[in-house]
């Protein structure tokens, strides 16, 4: 890993071996206080500072490449969460949840191993010490951590037979979104409190509207002819003209 600012930025703009520019886009973003952390499709973290004046646009204060550029395939940042009071950032990339220092993005530790493979995580800041919850594929379990110094694992419970895509933790209840619906899980013992299924043949997709900062106008759908991503793109960065380009699930009539 490299904490250098220049190298990750150069990697983000580099051309592929066949001479074509790679489509690099934002895959995760979160802000807390003045810090805005951005994760990209090629595994780069960027830190920005919220300016007092809306018309002052500045580049990133720090950058970090999570994986060496020499690898054949890059890994997108899937999820991140900024904890400004703790001066930490939690990042999910390639099945690993790593903890970084906010200002320089220096890695402090990794909460799991490649064998356990994290699928999603969430944080809870209700207590005096922030807590984090990881859903890991190995043994279908949930790992609970206190985000303190040092970071400690304080609970591990079995997860029902679901594969989470998103999680939210409030009190002792964890809302888990998965392919078939939403389950509310007891954070103390892992039993399902309630469950709601999606409609038959439902499919979850993510579509992004790409925007640009324009002086006096702010952010909006202002595109240039050279923009590779277009006005809309899917989670893999492929350009979309409309939702009609995304195949419907079997038996469905419309999005």
From TrEMBL:
Start and end residues of each CNH domain: 23-255
TM stretches of this protein: none
Main location as per UniProt: cytoplasm
InterPro entries: CNH_dom, Vam6/VPS39/TRAP1
Key word Coiled coil present: no
GO annotation terms (biological process): autophagy; endosomal vesicle fusion; protein transport
The keyword Protein transport is assigned to this record: yes
Pfam family, one: CNH
Keywords (A to Z) from UniProt: Cytoplasm, Protein transport, Transport
Compartment(s) where it occurs, according to its Swiss-Prot or TrEMBL record: Cytoplasm
Top-level taxon: Eukaryota
GO CC terms of this entry: cytoplasm; membrane
Protein name (record): CNH domain-containing protein
């Amino acid at each position: 890993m490299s904490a250098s600012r220049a190298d990750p930025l150069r990697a983000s703009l580099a051309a592929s071996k066949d001479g074509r520019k790679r489509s690099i886009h934002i895959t995760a973003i979160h802000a807390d206080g003045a810090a805005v952390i951005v994760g990209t499709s090629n595994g780069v973290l960027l830190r920005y500072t919220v300016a007092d004046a809306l018309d002052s646009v500045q580049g990133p204060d720090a950058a970090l490449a999570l994986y060496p550029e020499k690898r054949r395939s890059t890994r997108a940042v899937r999820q991140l969460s900024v904890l400004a009071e703790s001066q930490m950032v939690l990042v999910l990339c390639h099945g690993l949840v790593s903890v970084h220092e906010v200002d320089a993005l220096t890695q402090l530790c990794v909460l799991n191993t490649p064998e356990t493979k994290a699928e999603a995580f969430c944080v809870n800041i209700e207590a005096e010490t922030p807590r984090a919850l990881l859903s890991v594929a190995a043994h279908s379990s949930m790992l609970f951590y206190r985000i303190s110094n040092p970071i400690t694992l304080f609970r591990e419970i079995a997860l029902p037979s679901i594969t989470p895509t998103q999680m939210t933790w409030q009190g002792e209840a964890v809302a888990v979104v998965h392919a078939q619906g939403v389950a509310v899980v007891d954070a103390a013992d892992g039993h399902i409190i309630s469950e709601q299924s999606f409609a038959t043949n439902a499919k979850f997709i993510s579509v992004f509207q790409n925007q640009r900062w324009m002086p006096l106008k702010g952010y909006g759908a202002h595109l240039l002819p050279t923009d590779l991503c277009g006005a809309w793109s899917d989670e893999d960065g492929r350009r979309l003209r409309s939702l009609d380009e995304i195949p419907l699930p079997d038996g469905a009539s419309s999005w």
